[in-house]
């Protein structure tokens, strides 16, 4: 329940503690905000204890360091409004899982300085992508963070993430791929628009030598995504014409 609904699980736990207090003759209610802060500090103490014991977080014990596949995807639904109440205190887990914004921004600026600006959306055959592109402007809405980009292994273990402010541009998964390539020997790099991302990566690797090792991985596009990219053509002519994206599909990959 803690993983499926963290906020709800905290409320239920507080209610259970209050009920136990009332049943033993004590009175008073538990402040949820104070409890939340204390629990986060308790979690940070546990993290520091594991760090002293050389326990590395966000590492899959089943496939580290030789990972078969790393999957990256983004979600633009995690909005955070600029005028929402917050705190000026530094984060306890700064840079632990969510990459530091300054580090990501420096990498994005470096990539943007090497590319030719091209307007419009990317296409793959008759399909038009809105999920990822070379460039994207910041949202005009009064939001601070537009979403998250997260990388996982094939066992579903979270590896690393970042905040994205410009939508799902290619530089974001490229940053995660570069960071994870330094600590994991991955064979496949899975992405829902790998058929467009990989040529872009190869083009950037030709301009930035430090990205060249990333091209040693193999791009992975699920069969379902490949069918979606060419679904319009199959519906019009009644048969499936192999497109450029199908060369990124590996035998036995039935899902994303």
Automatic annotation (TrEMBL):
Q: Could you tell me the superkingdom of the organism this chain comes from?
A: Eukaryota
In which organism is this protein found?
A: Gymnodraco acuticeps (Antarctic dragonfish)
Protein name per its UniProtKB record = Uncharacterized protein LOC117536658
- PANTHER family linked to this entry: CXC3 LIKE CYSTEINE CLUSTER DOMAIN-CONTAINING PROTEIN, SI:DKEY-29D5.2
């Amino acid at each position: 329940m803690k993983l499926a609904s963290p906020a709800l699980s905290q409320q239920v736990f507080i209610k259970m503690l209050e009920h136990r207090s009332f049943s033993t003759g004590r009175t008073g209610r538990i402040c949820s905000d104070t409890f939340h802060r204390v629990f986060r500090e308790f979690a940070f103490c546990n993290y520091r204890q594991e760090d002293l014991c050389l326990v590395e977080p966000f590492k899959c014990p089943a496939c580290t360091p030789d990972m078969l596949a790393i999957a990256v995807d983004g979600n633009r639904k995690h909005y955070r409004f600029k005028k929402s109440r917050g705190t000026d205190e530094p984060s306890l887990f700064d840079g632990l899982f969510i990459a530091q914004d300054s580090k990501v921004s420096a990498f994005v600026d470096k990539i943007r300085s090497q590319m030719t600006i091209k307007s419009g959306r990317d296409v793959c055959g008759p399909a038009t992508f809105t999920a990822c592109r070379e460039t994207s402007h910041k949202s005009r809405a009064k939001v601070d963070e537009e979403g998250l980009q997260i990388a996982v292994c094939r066992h579903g273990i979270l590896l690393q993430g970042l905040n994205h402010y410009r939508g799902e541009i290619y530089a974001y998964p490229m940053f995660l791929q570069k960071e994870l390539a330094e600590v994991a020997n991955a064979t496949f790099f899975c992405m829902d628009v790998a058929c467009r991302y990989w040529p872009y990566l190869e083009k950037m690797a030709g301009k930035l030598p430090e990205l060249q090792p990333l091209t040693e991985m193999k791009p992975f596009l699920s069969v379902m995504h490949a069918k979606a990219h060419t679904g319009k053509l199959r519906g019009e002519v009644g048969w499936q014409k192999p497109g450029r994206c199908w060369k990124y599909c590996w035998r036995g990959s039935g899902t994303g």
